[in-house]
Amino acid sequence: MSEAKHSIALLGNPNSGKTALFNILTGLNQKVSNYPGVTVEQTIGMAQIENSPVAIIDLPGTYSLVPESHDEAIVAEEFGKWAKGENTPDCIISVVDSTNVMRNLYLTTQLLDLGIPVVVALNMIDLAREKSIEINCEKLKEDLGVFSVIPVSARLREGMNDLKRSISQAIRRKSETPPIFPIPEPVQNAILPLQNWYRDTFQFSEYLSRSFAIRSATVGSTNGIGSPDSPLMDACKMDLKMIGFPYETLEPTLRYHWLDQVVPKAEIPIEKKSRSEKTDEILTHPWGGPLIFVGLLTFIFQAIFSWAGIPMNMIDNSIARFGNWVAHQLPPGLLTDLLVEGIIGGAGAILIFLPQILILIFFMTLLEDFGYMARVAIMMDKAMTKVGLHGRSVLPLMSGYACAIPGIMATRTIDSWKERLVTILVLPLMSCSARLPIYALMIGAFIPDQTVFGYFGLQGLTMVLMYFLGTVTALILSLIFSSWIKTERKSSFIMELPPYRIPLMRSVFRQVYTRGKLFVTDAGKIIMAISIVLWFLASFPKVDSENGEKQTIHTSFAAKIGKTIEPMIAPLGFDWKIGLGLVTSFAAREVMVSTLATIYNVGNVKDDVISLSDAMKRDKNPVTGKSIFTPLVALSLMVFYVYAAQCMATFAIVKRETNSWKWPVFMVVYMTGLAYFGSLIVYQGGLMMGFS
Amino acid sequence: MIQEILVGLILISAVVMIVIRFRKQVTVGDGNHHCDDCGSD
Questions:
Q1: Tell me, what's the pLDDT at A225?
Q2: Residues 6+ apart with CB under 8 A from A508
Q3: Which of B9, B32, B36, B37 should one mutate to test binding to chain A, selecting the residue with the greatest count of A CBs within 10 A?
Q4: Residue B26 Cα, gap to closest chain A Cα (Å)
Q5: Fewest C-beta in 10 Å: which of A145, A270, A537, B14?
């Protein structure tokens, strides 16, 4: 940022393709999706525009400068600062969805008030062409008074050079004479005292003062800067009332009236029967829609097991071979033990699940980019409204399927604090991708690979069941929490259904790569650090025993910790090894897998790296001689992890977003209680029904 | 002996890394919190 002489701001409606443009201009990898609300805070990136570095500020998507939610308020407040001359960008790129020009340009007309050059990027021009919408860019530029109107397609990377050239010219231009959109004279007279107040207080231009006067008369305040006293405001509202102008809708009325005159002259739409609408009738059908969704999920989860088999075996064999090679190359000793048992055998065990995670992310990204997830959100909205959750909670909850952290951050779009709090509290129940290694390990090892009802794989169905268990519990709990934490009003859910788009495979694979890299590097670091500490705890104290090293694991620090917990978790079917995993996995859920792998590797009498799945199947209780892991124990453990709050990062983000220890502690307590009793019911119920 | 020293260093680094990660995550950041009347804001 410091090396850039110029800065430009990227603004636009939600889902207008702003972030995609930002990524192309800066070469960064911000998450892009085919649903609104992906950007919830501002991001700054550097771009090379005509060989000079330019800082690009990506702000959350907003429909106007009158905010409806916290992320929209960020934009309004930033605009207020620019108006006062604080960090004002040299130029604004207003990203406009070409398929919905009228609504998108509303924000553009507000941005023009600043008096700095506004470049309109008419994004998704390819889709507009498909809909036979033609836009006369030159005419639009003249009538609107913007610096330029550039047709682009971020998806196809079309028009990027023209956009960069125009940005370069706009930066050099510095200031722009703002156009005057028509205001009836009686309205102008009514708002004049407010306009003068803004001009005198902030030394704004006449045009900017007039815009703020209109906004403050409409909504009673202006974000980011002060507002006139009540008597002045009341007098203005009274005057507007007297001339028969409802002040509550003053700004939208005036601006849309202007756009009504400008847009039809520039836009030549030819109505065509939309294929999207036809597809929506099927995919969002009250009964058919949910069935299709369940079918798709089952297919995806079955594919996770079927397709990932070969790469998983390859990784498994490679890790074992590498571990054995290291064991034979290095001289025997502590360091060799640490490398083979702790790092390669323990932390390496988690790498085996990378193909499954990548396949899940691939399908989820595909469905998002296709526009299907937005339809699922609409379908879920109906169910959520019935159980007390509200419209704007849908998308954050959907994000929770990938990871709770961005989901919790996305709750910033929820205007009502109490609705937001309920959403934050239930969101970690949505099964995130960190649970996948645990589900996959247990299902792969203990659920038979067979077909049920003719078509469905039992393994895939078990996985779907775990996801549904979390989702249904989240819905039920939101009903309970909503009655405790009384919400003052129900926020409306306004979501524009994005058109169906053929996903751009480059973007899908980039997302898969980014998430995979994050899993290996970010989660991998903490998994490795914990595996090292755990190896130490499982290897010491060294006890001289006639039976040799195998005795060490049962007298180790790790065993002592695990065996302290064991009495509490024995009713759930868990032994001390699982108990230790429950403790270590508070850092991240996947650590459960690496914990088991480390313990089994340290306990292994031979020098080779063992297969975790095989070791679990072979493990017997030394006293009873019965298997430690059975299908019932596996099911109990999976149910535990559906509910368990085992995630340090989620705890931290809830603390951060609620600015209180009370709510994260409450979340951990209720989720742990739910996990314990859920597992207890499954295990004890299973035993009573005759399962072992 | 060298192996023992190296293991000790790796172990200390791992513990430090876990502590740093934990501190970084629970440190109050610039969160976007907003509470109407629950007293936590």
A1: 75
A2: A362, A365, A366, A369
A3: B32
A4: 5
A5: A270
